[in-house]
Amino acid sequence: MSLKLSDRVNAIQPSATIAMNVKAKALAEKGISVINLSVGEPDFDTPTFIQDAAMLAMRAGQTRYTAADGSPALKQAIADKLQRDNELHYKTQDILVTSGAKQALFNAMQALLNPEDEVIIPAPYWVSYPDMVLLTGAKPIVVHAGIDQQYKISAEQLEAAITPKTRMVILNSPSNPTGASYQHDELQTLSKVLMKHPHISVLSDDIYEYINFEMTPFVNIVNVCPELREQTIIVNGVSKSHAMTGWRIGYAAGPSGAISAMKKLQSQSTSCANSIAQAAAVAALEATRDSFFTPMLKAYHERHLWLLEAINTIEGFEAIPAQGTFYLFVRVEEAIQQLRLTDDLSFASLLLEDAHVATVPGTAFGSPGYLRLSFATKLEALQQAVQRIAQVVKQ
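RESULT FIELD:
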C-alpha cells in the first residue's frame, strides 16, 4: 500500500523546465545529439577567483553552520552591493541569505500568505510562482500580458485585479521567460496603484538584474517609489550573475518583521545556506564585475540578436527583442496550426522527438501558444538548433 500524499502536494505540478531538461538529458544519455534550449542557467563556468575563495574557506575551517540568516560577512557584502549598485540602504538585520533565490521566494510567501489570500501574478510568469502560492493555501490570480503589450501588465490591469483578498503582487524584471524589463515610467504607473493598497506586499524578483540589454540602468520598484519600501521584499542571488546556479546562494532584503519571519521559517527547514558557498558569494559580490561579467553579457547579447533574427525567418514563428535575461519567448500559434498539432505542448514534444531540440512550452508559463528558447548555449549550437527546427516546420 502506498503512503497517502498531502492535499498540498497533490495540488501542484513538478517544475516544467526541470522536467524538460531531464527528458533532454535522458535522450543524450542514449547517444542522441540533443541541443538543449530548455536550460535556465549560464553555460559559463563559475569564475576561478570565486572557486578559489571556496577552497580557502574550506581550508580555513569555514565548514560549520552559520547563523540561520547567513554569515555576517555575506550579509554585509549584500548590503554593500545593494548600496553600491542599487542605491538602496538596508541594514544587515534586514537581509536573509537563502539556499538560492528560489528559497527566498518560497520563504516570503510562506511568511506572508494565508489560505484564501490572493496573489497577483503577471503572465507570462516563471513556472514556480503559482505552485509556490498554492502551497500556502492562497490563490494565484493571473493577469495576462501578451506580445502586443511587450509582456508587461498595465496599471489598469493591476488595479482591476485587486480585490479585498489581494495580499501580494509578484514582479519579475527582467522576466523569465520573456526577457521583458519594466522601465522607470512603467514601474511608476504600477507603484501609484500599489501605494493605494498598503496591505499588499510586493515580491520583487530581481535575479536577472545584471543580464540587461537596455542602455538604461536596471531599476526595481523601490528605486522608483521609495514609499513602497516597507511593502516590498527584494529577492536576488548570484546564480545568474556569477554563473553559480549549483552553489545555491540567494538573498532577500525587506521590512524587518517580514525578514525575521522568513528567518524563523528557515531555521526550521534548511537551517542555513551552505557555509562554503556563502564564503564564495562574498568574493563574488565584493569583486568588480568587469573582468568576467562584461564578456558574458556581450556573448548573451550577440546570441540574442542572432537568434531573434533567425527565429523570425521561420514560418509561423514570431518573437520580439528581449530586454534582458538569456531567453527568447516565441509565439508559435501559426506554426502549431500549420503542423495540425493540438497545442504548444505537442509542438515541444515534436521538436524534442524529431529535431532533438529541447524547448519549454509556453503553457508552463501561463501562455499557451508560445515556446521559450534559452540562448545560454554556444552560438554554434543555436545555429544548428534553428536549422533543425526549421526543417521540422517545413515538413
